[in-house]
Amino acid sequence: MSSAARIEAFLEMMSAERGAAENTLASYRRDLDDAASAIKGGLANAAPGDIRSYLDGIAAQGFAPTSQARKLSALRQFFKFLYAEGLRQDDPTGTLDSPKKGRPLPKTMGEAEAGRLLDRAAAEAAEPPPGSDRLAALRLHALVEVLYATGLRVSELVGLPVTVAQRDDRFFMVRGKGNKERMVPLSAKARAAMTAWLAARAKVPAYAESPFLFPSSSDSGHLPRQVFARDLKGLAARAGIAASKISPHVLRHAFASHLLQNGADLRAVQQLLGHADISTTQIYTHVLEERLVRLVNDHHPLAD
Predict the structure, then answer these.
(1) Which end of the chain, C or N, has fewer beta carbons within 10 A?
(2) What are the chain's domains?
(3) In this predicted model, what pLDDT tens digit does every residue of 122-166 receive, in sequence order?
(4) 58 with 68: CB under 8 angstroms?
(5) Considering the entire predicted model, what is its pTM?
(6) Cβ(274)–Cβ(186) under 8 Å?
(7) How far, in Å, CA of 297 to CA of 167, rounded?
């Protein structure tokens, strides 16, 4: 059986047995065809040295570590399949290390910029710009206030139940990744923005009976996250902030960074963000380091 035939057999298995999506299968096909064209003697017969040389070659071409890791993952799956089917007696990828991906610092924004964004949202909710929709302005104000007050993931935010706004509580429970619940705080400004939005929402017959706080005619029944991201960029531009610097994820990072800058504990921020592992939250250690340097410089008697 040729390498091409074995790739086809692997893709058929991924589709039939594992239910891989079309995009996933297409990605596997591209990566395996690329490796097959680069490795002399056929991909199916490749030795560990052949795979290593191929990976060194794509690294030299400037492929990002994430792309290198994806290609290696495809090869590992392929050779695992060949081994399980008895088509090979070994796995040439078994001794290969994954490329180090590194962890870039998250994009965030300063407290002053966040304040400008919130002020602009509040001003537009009170008096929408000419030609704009007051209902949309109230919704955007509520979304931005709640996101900055809670640090929710955008999927959690747009999918909030309407019951969150029907209570005047300082905290509410949100169901996040892995179906896990966590408690998040709600500022007075966020509660007020949600209350104003709820009152406006109740006057729209199509929204009044929806179980979602931010209903929509979309398939999910709630506001699509892409729509919120687009509206947020427009708000940023009107607030004098470059649209390229803002996204729902940036506001989530701003929530975490500003908490840490003002004395919050890393473990507390981990719980608020819904990170299962503290190592995920440790991308913010640079904020803690800056805070400690400032603390020493401001308070140590020999700092000068």
Answers:
(1) C
(2) 3-84 (1.10.150.130), 111-297 (1.10.443.10)
(3) 999 999 988 889 999 999 999 999 999 998 999 999 999 999 888
(4) yes
(5) 0.61
(6) no
(7) 44
